[in-house]
Design goal:
360 residues; alpha/beta; Rossmann fold; binds 1,3-dihydroxyacetonephosphate
Length: 360
Amino acid sequence: MQEIHPVGGIVDEGRLIADTLLVKQYLDRAVQPDAPSARERAEYRGAIMDLLERRNAMIVAHYYVDADLQELAEESGGFVGDSLEMARFGRDCAADVLIVAGVRFMGETAKILSPDKIVLMPTLEATCSLDVACPVDEFSRFCDAHPDHAVVVYANTSAAVKARADWVVTSSIAVDVVDHLAAEGRPVLWAPDRHLGAYIERVTGAEMLLWDAACIVHEEFKARGLQDLIQVYPDAAVLAHPESPYGVLELADFVGSTTQIIKAAKEFPNRRFIVATDQGIFRKLQMEAPAKEFIVAPTAGNGAECRSCASCPWMGLNSLPDMLESLKNGSNEVLVDKQLSRQAMVPLRRMLDFAANSRS
Ligand code: 13P
Ligand code: SF4
């Protein structure tokens, strides 16, 4: 067990503390931007629209970023979606410049898949606790120790970790890919999210070795509080992202990626839903199912004690002024080492080809 690399686990206390501190250092830097006034918002939006046109640029945004950025992406012909769809859109669109509103791995994936496009981000500080807690050297040692395993990594990793993998997957396609490998009788080495890994293992019955990291946002959803909320709203269906802990997933009526959660909200007959994922998704949920009510699942702590409050601090770093700055000056360009990029392209392309064949 000593090769498992914990962020919140119990395997190796020294490493646990080191990783937790590392994530904390990044979190301390993630000071949330001030909300602009209505007048500033209109000015930023106008200036960004103008630059998007002049530079033949497209916004590719995740559901978790600020509603202003999601709106702007949609109004300007760009895209808002889950991480698999973002990768696909970035690769397929005809823009010269992509401006990715999300976290670092999303910008890197866009660059790897579109090496000839300029890829910008409003900020390069937007990381992810899963990426931070999976350093490539330790991960490579883990892989080297298990050469018989197919190496499957979550998209929420660095380009270097992807370059070491046989497959990259996102939450919308992870179960299908591992099912496919299990049918071939291949054991799987999975990194980095332990909750998603354990979920895939339960659903597919595959033989899996799990890295031990977690999403600081989803890990905060609590089964106890959720049970209480279900008592208050017995008619509500629970929709959960698979990065949530086991107890929360056990109580869920539906588990899936962000786009799959939105689809479920539209299709389920329920009028009310408890949602265990980042609150940024509520904008799209409300748009797609306006007659329905959405309640955020309970997290650890309340008010000032609330830790993540179902809101990713790194997604929250994306702002209108930083997007404008980046488009104006070409700042925050995402660059990926060419050789690493070529290597990481292989498992990424495998995922996209698999998705195209299975229409995920
Ligand atoms: P999705 O692929 O479901 O959008 O998830 C990305 C992510 O970072 C969730 O925390
Ligand atoms: Fe990473 Fe979690 Fe933020 Fe998603 S919500 S980007 S998994 S820290």
